[in-house]
Amino acid sequence: MKLDKKSLAVTVLSVFAVQTYAAGLERSPQQIDALFENGTYAELGYIHISPKITGKDTSGNHISDMAEDFQSLNYAVKTDLVPNLRLAVIYDEPFGAKVKFEGENNFIAKDRPADDASTSVNVKVKNVTTLLGYNVNKNVMVYGGPALQETKADVRLRGLTYDVSSGYNNHFDDIALGWVAGMSYAKPEMGILASLTYRSEIKHKTTIHEDDPLADIVYAGDYSHSNQGDITTPESFNLNLQTGLNQTTAIYAKMRYVPWKDFAYYPPVLKASTSIALGKGIPLVDYSEDQTSVELGLGKQLSPNLAISVSGLWDSGAGDPAPTLGPVDGYWGVGLGAKYNLSQNLAFSLGGRYMWFGDAKGELSSRQVVGDFKDNTGYIVGMKLSYSSSK
């Protein structure tokens, strides 16, 4: 059974797998598929994510959709430096949150102007990963390189939910460096490709700006609003497997593990003020469980220019109760993608997925349950334009 790269280029790849709405702050499975392309390769993608998350606060008030839509661009370029050495540069946005509470509920402050009355969270993380891949032999490749990460966050806590901490603000912006390493095994004549990739955690040490009403009380307003602090984005493991069934059909599996249980963000002022008021410092956000996600799919070449893929998705979530910036307990989902060859070298991909989120209680990091979120769903649509010199 002989399977060429052209026949399998799309069938083994979910077009829309670049972004998701998953456990913790995760928004991307951080795939590195471009590294495995032949010849010179480039891609540019656009993703639109639309989660719908509603619920009730502990007073029984309705919480309208608090998860805002967001968009993302991603790109990758890859080239062969010498016959056994390749280089890839990949940009993605792996972590993030975009939340805003509206209406009349316990996440809205009644003693503030309308433009500053809502609890909101806006987190955006951008990654540029540079990978060198070396072919040990015709089947085995080892690869690795640095990952440059920019993290921005703006958090505003408002309403009865946060008691004396209503009015708390948190902001920071930082760039830090991590690393990536992995190994792959390929047997192109059988359509086989397996890869295992490790990404290190990335520690950001930066100035964190805080306004803390609790600190105004315990320190009588005499504290610094800008202090050195740190936040560490988690490490991850990705295992990808694919194999051909015949010349036009392939199956694949993508598995990812992220130890979100190890993640906790302790802003310095909040930690100090809660240590005095409560006897122990509490984080702004943390998680109770690690995340495992799985995608299983099948790809089919329908014609020389058209291929489709279908997939099933599962994400364990990072614990229930969950932080109010993403109160879901994992999801089940389905996906559909298609790729059309516009010319010998250019291709256009379009895909979408629909997700059913697990019900979850929303909680503060003090372990106080503050909401109940049920029967929520979301969808993702994405498109990608790619160029390959090897077709």
Automatic annotation (TrEMBL):
<keyword id="KW-0998">Cell outer membrane</keyword>
<feature type="signal peptide">
    <location>
        <begin position="1"/>
        <end position="22"/>
    </location>
</feature>
<keyword id="KW-1134">Transmembrane beta strand</keyword>
<keyword id="KW-0472">Membrane</keyword>
<protein>
    <submittedName>
        <fullName>Aromatic hydrocarbon degradation protein</fullName>
    </submittedName>
</protein>
<keyword id="KW-0732">Signal</keyword>
<dbReference type="InterPro" id="IPR005017">
    <property type="entry name" value="OMPP1/FadL/TodX"/>
</dbReference>
<dbReference type="GO" id="GO:0015483">
    <property type="term" value="F:long-chain fatty acid transporting porin activity"/>
</dbReference>
<comment type="similarity">
    <text>Belongs to the OmpP1/FadL family.</text>
</comment>
<keyword id="KW-0812">Transmembrane</keyword>
<dbReference type="Pfam" id="PF03349">
    <property type="entry name" value="Toluene_X"/>
</dbReference>
<dbReference type="GO" id="GO:0009279">
    <property type="term" value="C:cell outer membrane"/>
</dbReference>
